Amino acid sequence: MDQIKWGIIGCGNVTEVKSGPAFNRVENSSLVAVMRRDAELAADYASRHNVPKWYSDADELINDPDVNAIYIATPPDAHEGLAFKAMAAGKPVYIEKPMARNAAECDRINAESKRTGIPVFVAYYRRSLDYFLKVKELIDSNAIGDLRFVDICLQWQPYDEEVGENPKPRWRVNPEISGGGHFHDLASHQFDFLEYVFGPVKFAHGIARNQAGLYEADDIVVAHFEFESGILGKGSWCYTVNKEQREDQAQIVGSKGRITFSFFEKFDIKLETENGTEVFNIPYPKHVQEPLIGHIVKELRGEGKSPSSGDTGARANLIMDWITQGQ
């Protein structure tokens, strides 16, 4: 492939800034079509983002001869079916995270990718962001010595639409659509990056519960896990605290120090060793998926390799299944 001409299926909020505009900013890449079930919203998106074509039917976009790569940005329940259709049309697939609702769906997507030879990528863009690459660089350079353990804490207050007199929780806390709750949405990013840094997780166990009763999905998860390298990890995720308790912090502890960083909300990385404390401030780019999309385009052109693939993307789902279903 020379010029990568993308079509987006599901041009919702995630595509407005994080991903959509990035397709036109990457060399040898362009966004040529978008699809949304609501024709009026699809037309509006195309108009605002200067996209030549819009559709209200996914099959029409997939079969558009001007589109040679597909970005699936729908909720996870549609990922598998759409990925199969795109691969049947001979078009590479870039799938929003999590890759699917569970590991079994991911495995089927990857099996079809191998059968057809059509590549699959997953939007775990932290593998390409300078902020997270700095964390990896510090670890790879032995800045904190031999690695011992990682500790994750993510606790957020409920979203506005989940509380009040007439709550209307969104699809992310409907397991039939998302595969779980906010844990599946956010912890998928965390486990993907941790495997990028430390290698494969050997096993993971946890407890997932619904304490507040705001929706069907779990709202609290605690877990412990071990990497094949022998590094241990633990984490806690709670989505029903008050806003004053809101916290997003991860620590990586080694024999000579520790690294403290945030997965979602802060741009500081703190390195503490016997030589003192050093802080690195590395903001995200405006279009956070742009660096990863750049890697994907290069791979499709035969010029490089994307750090995120269907095989790596499926791992986060497997780990989350272990934690939430192995009780």
Structure notes:
The protein has 327 residues and is of the alpha/beta class. It folds into 2 domains: 4-124 and 288-306, Rossmann fold (3-Layer(aba) Sandwich); 130-283, Dihydrodipicolinate Reductase, domain 2 (2-Layer Sandwich). Helix content is 33%, strand content 26%. It has 11 helices and 14 strands. Strands 8-9-10-7-11-12-13-14 form an 8-stranded mixed beta sheet, with helices on one face. The protein has a 6-stranded parallel beta sheet with strand order 3-2-1-4-5-6, with helices on both faces. The longest helix has 17 residues, at 182-198. The mean pLDDT is 97.
Report, as a whole number of angstroms, the end-to-end distance: 46 Å
Helix content: 25-40%
Kindly provide the radius of gyration, computed on alpha-carbon positions and rounded to a whole number of angstroms: 20 Å
CATH class of the largest domain: Alpha Beta
Question: Main beta sheet, described?
Answer: 8 strands, mixed
Determine the oligomeric state from the structure.
Answer: single chain
**CATH 4th-level superfamily of the largest domain:** Dihydrodipicolinate Reductase, domain 2
Strand order of the largest sheet: 8-9-10-7-11-12-13-14
